[in-house]
Amino acid sequence: MKELYKIKDSLVLFDEQSSLTLWDPKEGWELKLEAHMIDFLKAFAIPATKEAAYRSIATSYNVNEQFFEDIVASFLSQKLIEPVSGAGKTNKPNLQIGMFRTPIISLKECLMGEGTNIAFLGMPYDLNVTYRPGARFAPSYLRKVSGSVFQYDSDTLKGAYDPVKGKQILQNIRMTDIGDISSVVFSRNGTQFDSLEETIYRLTKKNILPTTIGGDHSITLPCVKGAARTYHKIGIIQLDAHSDFGLNQVEDWRETTHHGNFMDLLIEDERVVDIVQIGIRQLVEGYLPHAKVKQYPGKSILLLLSEMEDRLNSEIPYYLTIDVDAMDPTVLSATGTPLPGGFTYEEMNEVLKTITKSARIIGLDMVELLPGDSEVDGVLASGLLINLLSNVMERLDEHCTSYSKSLT
Ligand SMILES: [Mn+2]
Questions:
Q1: Are 119 and 125 in contact (CB under 8 A)?
Q2: What's the CA gap between 184 and 55, in Å, rounded?
Q3: If I label 276, which of 8, 47, 95, 134 is the partner at 20 to 30 A Cα–Cα?
Q4: Which top-level group of life is the source organism from (predicted)?
């Protein structure tokens, strides 16, 4: 039997500023190829023998078979294609359901496809907590319970009618779930952080809104770094009971970073030019002012919404991070370091509405949710997310224009 070959599984192919790039997220390399070489490579998109591949390109390209054989040999030596083992076997159908019943697809499919607006991903990581762990279970928990708040319909893209807003929301918005950043065992501040950064970078570069489900709050660090690689200059809006910084000198971030100090690194990052913190109420040693940081402590924002609206910089995109402990523990108790004096559900929605009205949100995360036996906390978190996403998407057209501007 003739050997079958196909494009290597981990390879991602995408258009980038009118050239075609191949990327191997597993091995971390990138390669630009001429258009005709890409066509030759695509002959192996589905398993094919060299002869069949040659026949499929011979109609468009006037090359002889020996020339094509040499190209195939170079593809093989560069590991762009690989022999298919066990040809004819089918994969098991993927029965997993994503956030809000979105289909779970691979990052590769998400990046190669067109028109995705929102990509959910999970970062089941809680090695950086100072107190109670458990946030690693939040992504699978939210996938399970979020369908009771909103069910995505990929056939009709009809969204849903919201009786409170009195209108259809999320209509024609394409969402997907690319699963979790995964590892058999996570290492502390290890390579899984690098994978998350790379993933956020790739998604934002393709104008897809990454919506990451943590995880403890330290996962925001790679998320912001990834977004900053795309936009070069960004702001951060943080809803949190804790400021998560101590203005410490950080020597080796992999050694020292945890969920209560990761903002130190982001404050130092030159690409982060504005930080707005809302809901801060933790007692600390002393007041720590910093030129980049504007704090609206406790629930003070509720009286200062218009001030914040004016203050947010319309020239830069913002990354939004929601620590669920911004909410009052009597509202949401499923969190690792709860503090009294937080927002109600309606107040959270009000604040988020103002933020999305005045800031261009290019990525977001929800962190520090520690699921217990109850599904109520998950429904609450899902409700916040869907309100937030519908608000962000309402400004999508405006966003797209600004996105492409800031992508140059
Ligand atoms: Mn936090």
A1: no
A2: 42
A3: 134
A4: Bacteria
Q: Please give the Cα distance from 351 to 349 (Å, whole number).
A: 6
Model-wide pTM > 0.90: no
Is 99-406 CATH 3.40.800.10? yes
Chain segment 144-170, per-residue pLDDT in tens:
999 999 999 988 889 999 999 999 999
Query: Residue 85: what pLDDT?
Result: 65
Q: 302 and 261 in contact (C-beta within 8 Å)?
A: no
135 CA to centre of ligand 1 in angstroms: 12
The first and second tokens of residue 62, run together, are 């006037």
| CB contact set of 101 (below 8 Å; sequence gap of 6+) | 146, 147, 151, 152
Instruction: Report how far ligand 1's centroid is from the alpha carbon of 395 (Å).
Output: 27
Q: How many A from CA of 245 to the centre of ligand 1?
A: 9
Strands 118-123 and 160-162: unpaired
CATH 3.40.800.10 domain range(s) in the chain: 99-406
State how far the Cα of 258 lies from the Cα of 168, in Å rounded to an integer. 41
Give the ranges where 340-375 is alpha helix by DSSP (H).
Answer: 345-358
For residue 400, the CA-to-ligand 1 centroid distance in Å is 29
Which band of pLDDT confidence, cut at 50, 70 and 90, is reported for residue 92? very low
Residue 363, preceding peptide bond in cis (omega within 30° of 0): no
Assess whether pLDDT exceeds 70 at residue 1: no
Distance 240 CA to ligand 1 centre (A): 5
Gap from CA of 401 to ligand 1 centroid (Å): 32
pLDDT at 22 over 70: yes
Residue 72 CA, ligand 1 centroid: distance in Å: 51
Ligand 1 centroid – CA 337 distance (Å): 9
User: CATH second-level architecture of 5-83?
Assistant: Alpha-Beta Complex (3.90)
| List of E strands, 91-145 | 118-123
Alpha carbon of 358 to ligand 1 centroid (Å) = 23
User: 229 in helix, strand or coil?
Assistant: helix
